[in-house]
Design goal:
By secondary structure, the chain is of the alpha/beta class. It folds into two domains: 3-129 and 305-337, Quinone Oxidoreductase, Chain A, domain 1 (Alpha-Beta Complex); 150-279, NAD(P)-binding Rossmann-like Domain (Rossmann fold). It is built from eleven helices and 16 strands. The strands form three sheets. Strands 3, 5, 6, 8, 15 and 16 form a six-stranded mixed beta sheet that branches. The longest helix is centred in the middle third of the chain and has 20 residues, at 136-155.
Length: 339
């Protein structure tokens, strides 16, 4: 079957020699319809910077959606025809797997059926069935929305909180979408792209600030300096983390979602001695699965403006344009279609 791989030379290639997966009694076979490029994790894998994906060549992708086409004898959570998200692949003879969502077929695991038989497995907790009325493209977007929504819950954000999001990429805008869905009123965004900041306004941001304009940065400091309960850093660099100290209230929180911290963290504490620092850089399956119905309902009721977040829908054969659009900052979320 065909799929996108990353070679040992860190090049992306569309190949057709990936072995078809074989399912066990607790698994279902999924025909992939869509997989989105993750602007963070996928790009780090391609650069060879993600610790969890260091063996090449590998099959890329973890934001997949597709239809169940076959089920194992023990499966009860999936049936043929279901739209499901997060199908994946194990390593195979000729390729390692970095989740393998960019393959023509994938596998989902019925964790509930396994637990019923006394078997431990958390793989399938987030491989959930999508309600009717949600397209495969929207279903793939649900993965980023669910990851960020579960992070909002883990951080402990409340409706009355004053929030500053740093970063106007798809993650920052998905965080914004979730907070508006949850009724948080005061959410500001500091970003680098004017087009994304315009999108943030349409998504309901209370204020937006362009990082390349000193006047706007001064205005941000005046309005939000020392007043923010949660400073949410979707970049995760040492500079952006330390910047949070200028904005949080006493006993406020700097929450870091971005992955650019490196292996060491140094902070300038200034005179702040009462604050929290929380890293939410990797989804926890048990938390993510609980957001599924909320996000699906938000999409169906058009409370989440998916068309603002998905800027490119391309056939898998045009993958080079999709990755180029992300590298060149021309895209938010890029969907690559197998159908």
């Amino acid at each position: 079957m065909k799929g996108l791989i990353v070679t040992k030379e860190k090049k992306i290639r569309l190949v057709s020699d990936i072995p078809m997966p074989e399912i066990n009694p607790y698994e279902a076979l999924v025909k992939t319809e869509c997989c989105m490029i993750c602007n963070g994790t996928d790009m780090e894998i391609i650069r060879g910077e993600l610790a969890e994906a260091q063996q090449f060549p590998l099959i890329l992708g973890h934001e997949s959606s597709g239809r169940v086409v076959a089920v194992g004898d023990k499966v009860s959570s999936y049936k043929v025809g279901d739209m499901v998200i997060r199908s994946s692949l194990p390593d195979c003879d000729n390729y390692y797997s970095a989740w393998g969502g960019f393959a023509e077929y994938g596998v989902v695991t019925d964790t509930a059926a396994m637990e019923k038989d006394g078997l431990k497995n958390s793989t399938g907790l987030t491989q959930q069935v999508v309600p009717k009325g949600i397209t495969s493209v929207q279903a793939s977007l649900m993965i980023t929305l669910k990851e960020t929504c579960s992070a909002v819950n883990r951080i402990g954000i409340h409706k009355e909180d004053k929030i500053l999001i740093v970063g106007d990429g798809p993650v920052g805008l998905c965080f914004l979408s979730n907070m508006k869905l949850l009724g948080v009123k005061d959410v500001a965004i500091l970003g680098n792209r004017k087009s994304s900041l315009e999108t943030a306004k349409r998504l309901g941001a209370s204020s937006v600030f362009w990082n390349h304009d000193e006047t706007e940065k001064s205005k941000l400091k005046s309005q939000y300096g020392g007043r923010v309960r949660v400073y949410l850093d979707t970049i995760g660099s040492l500079d952006t983390i330390n910047q949070g100290m200028d904005f949080i209230i006493r006993d406020g929180k700097i929450a870091v979602y971005g992955l650019r911290t490196g292996n060491e963290l140094r902070m300038n504490l200034k005179e702040m001695r009462n604050f929290s620092l929380q890293f939410v850089q990797w989804p926890i399956e048990e938390n993510e699965m609980l957001t599924h119905d909320l996000i699906a309902d938000g999409i169906l009721k058009e409370q989440i403006l998916v068309n603002e977040l998905i800027t490119h829908v391309l056939p898998i054969e045009e993958y080079e344009e999709g990755f180029a659009a992300i590298r060149e900052k021309r895209a938010l979320k890029v969907a690559l279609m197998f159908e």
